[in-house]
Amino acid sequence: MQPILVIQNSHNDGPGLFETFAQERAYPLQVIRRFAADRLPADMTLHRGLCILGSPASANDDQADFRHMEQLILDARARRRPVIGHCFGGQILSRALGGT
Length: 100
What we know:
Blueprint: E1 4-8, H1 16-24, E2 29-33, E3 49-52, H2 64-78, E4 83-85, H3 88-96
Parallel strand pairs: 1-2, 1-3, 3-4
Helix pairs in contact: 2-3
């Protein structure tokens, strides 16, 4: 079974209850710890869904990884895979879908 991709942007904002939810349903997770310089995947080919967690940054900051996350959201959408964003993750989700 393909894992759900979880992007953890800050050391103190892990998957928490989302991880519990996934474990109760036997959904595997792959946690990318962006704050620890883990690399984001090129696309959503190997993942069944996407969860983007919080960050002290703003989604409007000019960072290449932020634009990359927006592309992952669009790729997940094109593949009809679920996406959820918490706090900063919601900001990135909004930007990817045309919000300001």
